[in-house]
C-alpha cells in the first residue's frame, strides 16, 4: 500500500516510511555486492533511494519493483567495484 500511495499520489509520508522500512535491507545487499566496502555500499544505497524517489514504479511495475531495484543495485555495485579496481591498478 505504501508503494502504491507514493506511486499514485507522491505521498511523501509513504515514501519516508518505505525508506525507513527497507533501507537496512538495501544497504546490506549493496554491502555484499561491493565486497564489504562501506562507503561504496552507502553510495549504492543512496542511489537506490534517489531512483525510487524520482522514478516511482508504475502500476505495471509494482509487482516487480524489488527486482528492478535489485538489478539497478547490482549494476551500481559493479560500477563501484570496477572504479575501485581501476584506482588500485
Report what the structure shows:
The structure is a single chain. By secondary structure, the chain is mainly α. The protein has one domain. It is built from 4 helices and no strands. It has helices spanning 2-9, 12-33, 38-54, 65-88. The longest helix is centred in the last third of the chain and has 24 residues, at 65-88. The termini are far apart.
Got a strand count? 0
Tell me the radius of gyration: 14 Å
Secondary structure tally, helices: 4
The biggest sheet amounts to: none
> Which overall shape is indicated by the principal axes computed on the Cα atoms?
elongated
Residue share in β-strands: under 5%
* Average pLDDT: 77
Number of domains: 1
Low-confidence stretches: 59-65
Please trace the helix and strand order, writing H or E for each element.
HHHH
Span of the ends, CA to CA: 47 Å
Structural class: mainly alpha
Report the helical percentage.
Answer: over 70%
List keywords for this structure.
80% helix, elongated
Topology:
Layout: H1 2-9, H2 12-33, H3 38-54, H4 65-88
Helix pairs in contact: 1-2, 2-3, 2-4, 3-4
Brief write-up:
By secondary structure, the chain is mainly alpha-helical. The chain has 4 helices and no strands.
Amino acid at each position: 500500500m505504501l508503494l502504491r500511495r507514493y506511486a499514485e499520489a507522491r505521498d511523501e509520508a509513504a515514501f519516508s516510511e518505505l525508506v525507513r522500512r527497507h533501507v537496512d535491507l538495501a544497504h546490506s545487499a549493496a554491502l555484499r555486492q561491493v565486497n564489504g566496502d562501506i562507503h561504496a555500499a552507502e553510495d549504492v544505497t543512496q542511489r537506490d533511494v534517489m531512483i525510487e524517489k524520482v522514478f516511482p514504479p508504475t502500476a505495471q511495475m509494482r509487482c516487480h519493483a524489488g527486482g528492478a531495484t535489485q538489478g539497478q543495485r547490482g549494476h551500481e555495485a559493479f560500477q563501484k567495484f570496477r572504479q575501485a579496481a581501476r584506482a588500485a591498478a
